[in-house]
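[SOLVED] Need 3D model of a four-part complex

Original post:
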Amino acid sequence: MARVGLSTERLVRAGAELADEVGFEQVTVSELARRFGVKVASLYSHVKNSQDLKTRIALFALEELADLSADAVAGRAGKDALTAFANVYRDYAHAHPGRAAAARLRLDPETAAASAGVRHAQMMRAILRGYDLPEPDQTDAVRLLGSTFHGYASLEGAGGFSHSSPDSEESWTRILDALDSLLRNWPAR
Amino acid sequence: MARVGLSTERLVRAGAELADEVGFEQVTVSELARRFGVKVASLYSHVKNSQDLKTRIALFALEELADLSADAVAGRAGKDALTAFANVYRDYAHAHPGRAAAARLRLDPETAAASAGVRHAQMMRAILRGYDLPEPDQTDAVRLLGSTFHGYASLEGAGGFSHSSPDSEESWTRILDALDSLLRNWPAR
DNA sequence: TGCATTTGCCTAAGAGTTTTAGGCAAACTA
DNA sequence: TAGTTTGCCTAAAACTCTTAGGCAAATGCA
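Solution:
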């Protein structure tokens, strides 16, 4: 029988592409097998089960996103760094809606702790150094930024901001302005 | 054959409870039938299909949430109104994680336009009247608030903020302080 | 009250996804 | 070149979703 050359790696990559095409929810072991022209059972040598596949796609997306962010942020500081970071996030969600949804998958604590999610948090902390926040406030700010970027991408992906003015692009820019302003004038406890 | 007294209403309610117990993703026509001690096919007289069921649960949650918010906001203004509104959202996500997830379901545009989601937006606009923002900025602010609340509840539900200090409760309060401050000092275009 | 209609839940059945177990041949390895 | 590993296969069971058609309980009407 002709060997197709499956591997966990290739399955995850193809799964990510599939997610972008049909939505992360619709990613299925069967569909993936179909795309490789292979029987479903064959995938189970490379992936534990359906949940495992999805988790791997999520981890892949988080990694990819962290790499892009790190590149974008390098050599920048302050608002420049903030917008670069935020735009990577949003651009990624536009270019790869399925992977972005995957990156929002609920991971169990250990998996999450070992994921590139921690790099994201570290980068945000690095960006916040340009704003000079005292320690406990820094964590609050990281959470605010994470929530906002995450939430915006999610709502925008769900079509929440289409069909009304101002267009989403402009709101996004304005929101980044507002967040920058907020970080520069963070209220005292 | 004993009639159980199914109805779309009861199915949706039970579906919402099921979602809170096992997660919105795990809500299934089969499981719901099992809970009613009824054959699966019987549900199809009351609900078009699985997607229809989920959409109805989402609409139900949005409605419930809008009712709670309206109550909470009534008679309040400014920061008072803002925190009341935001807390309803977060408390709801804690008490009913499945319904909260349902409320984040992607709806098609017409369904969304007819949903209680528009009441949410209107309430946010009403709250913003206390902050005196010029018109285009108001929309930006609504989107910022929506994204942040949405994102925070989502990340918190995914366990993103557990196991690190300050605890999530405190960050939430501080974030509301910060957003209030931001709205009072909204940067000019 | 008796009859017709509607309605609620049923059985049957087909299609799709997930997962496990065991087999055969191709590809490495010595 | 023989032995081992590995990759993909077939088979089969369990589950979910969905449609079609049937019977009996509930309801409405004379």
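Edit: Chain A has nine helices and no strands.
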